[in-house]
Task: inverse folding
């Protein structure tokens, strides 16, 4: 009987809990999106800093991408949800081009590199769902012309660039 009462109390308590809010898309997921075709995983590896993100307070967050076979081990800050979280786990290169799938970070959504400059100083990451988009840079602040180009790429791919801030 005591177990039955305890189960009822837990069931009632669970009813009062609100589910986690769905991420609000930064782009229309029905619109076109493109990823980089020419991509060198070894050059992408290393330390990146979030130069702009749709998550308030993520600017300046660090991410370390350590090449590991057909992908990377990721650590640092995950700026893909409604708030900054710890990023960890593996990210597998799944292609074509610069498309990969994380095992735990980024909400486990497919992540696409939409663009990067030829010297791998600035990269734009996003998801087909539009749940997140961000600009990564090897150093802060990024060069102004590279940041402008990154914002143009986000805009081209349907992102609301007003919501992706530094």
Result:
């Amino acid at each position: 009987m005591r177990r039955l009462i305890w189960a009822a109390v837990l069931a009632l308590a669970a009813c009062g809990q609100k589910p986690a809010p769905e991420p609000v898309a930064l782009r229309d997921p029905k619109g076109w999106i493109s990823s980089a075709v020419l991509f060198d995983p070894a050059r992408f590896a290393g330390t990146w800093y979030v130069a702009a993100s749709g998550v308030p307070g993520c600017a300046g967050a660090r991410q370390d991408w350590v090449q590991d076979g057909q992908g990377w081990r990721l650590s640092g800050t995950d700026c893909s949800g409604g708030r900054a979280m710890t990023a960890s786990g593996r990210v597998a290169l799944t292609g074509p081009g610069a498309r990969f799938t994380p095992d735990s970070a980024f909400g486990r959504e497919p992540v696409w590199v939409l663009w990067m400059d030829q010297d791998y100083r600035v990269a734009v990451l996003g998801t087909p769902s539009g749940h997140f988009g961000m600009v990564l840079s090897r150093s802060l602040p990024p060069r102004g012309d590279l940041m402008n180009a990154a914002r143009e790429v986000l805009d081209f791919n349907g992102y609301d660039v007003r919501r992706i801030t530094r």
